[in-house]
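Schema walk-through. Below, the input block comes first and the output block second. Nothing else is stored per chain. Lengths vary across the set, and this one has 444 residues.
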Amino acid sequence: MSVKTFRGGIHPEGFKELSLGGPVTPYQPQGDLVFPVNQHIGKPAKPVVKKGDLVQAGQTIAEADGFVSANIICSCSGKVKAIEERTTASGAKATCIVVENDGEYTLMEGIGKKRRADTFSNKDILDAVQRAGIVGMGGAGFPTHVKLTSKKPESIEYVIANGSECEPYITCDDHLMQNQSRGILDGLRLVLQLFPDAMGVIAIEDNKPEAIKAMEAVCAGEKGVMVQPVKAKYPEGGERNLISVISGRDLKFGQLPADVGCIVCNVATLYAIYRACCYSEPLMKRYFTVSGDAVANPGTFEVPIGTAYRELTEAAGGIKPDVTLKKALSGGPMMGIAMPSLDVPITKASNALTLLAEDEVELAAEQQTACIRCGRCSRVCPIHLIPQMMADAAEKKDYEQYEKRLYGLDCIACGSCTWVCPAKRPLMQLFKQAKAEILAARRK
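--- output ---
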């Protein structure tokens, strides 16, 4: 089968080998677990417990507050210690439910109850996904029941399982596809039931041969489902790029994938759908990679949501002796968020912690020069923008030019332009700031 790709993009070193070699390690935290009520795009969930309440693993502790919202599920048993403002991985404050973990992980009654996938109606599937609090687990955090609720299900032609995982260092989806290929396929089948005219396409970068092999094995003979290798290139896993590669269609700013006949779900999201429907299991845990050149034992863990980044760092052997940790990223080095502290919780959309002995941003700032007009940023932009001109407009705060003539809000903040810039200009940071200021002005 031919390998597909998109125009533009870059080829940063992957560093996947650091965390890919060993098995996935199940991890049970010992400290308090912290559950922000805004682990998704949309309105924050509303707490339905209070300080002093006893809770069990699998219990809903905050309910969705509206359609575009998601339930928050406790991943341990214990006592609600506090409901208070805490710092999250982004550095922002959020209302959090803090649970004093009793170490027993007592499950609520009914969780783990098996049910055959072919007994579900479409409403059963959507209800199970909504109850389970499932969101996009590739980083977006969009409530999945909203994505799967379509007024015109017959208009969907492709359900794309995103197994690209193009970000350097991160291997949790690769491990998941190798270890839970059957569950991913069954989750995809459940989604395809909602869209009867759609084909299922599992897109995997060609630098993941074992994942491709595992998924092809379970899909052999499966009607309406195929595995499509895609070229290992960043940002192959971006929703727009993947839609373009698989369907040949362009997703314009303001459009949703459904507008061009596509639904895109991360493979971890599909596995969570399978567990919710076939095992009555809400979203309580996920695969998570700890990697980077500063950590002693990089690897992938199966970890309860709410676990502290610091606790998982220690589970990975801590920081190497004689190494100074310069930067901790929630996510990978391209689109990850620099963390002010490791004392923050893993959320549903968290997929990795990258611990680095060098701060590339700091080093680049020391080497920064004026733009040399080489045009490399435009050549690598995966959605064909002109970063050089966008940066000029952003620096002048000419946001009419930035938005209306240069389509700056289309930027997906992948960082390809910054990575390739020989002048070491912080282009992505400029674009993030410009977008934030434009949207803030609109809200006012």
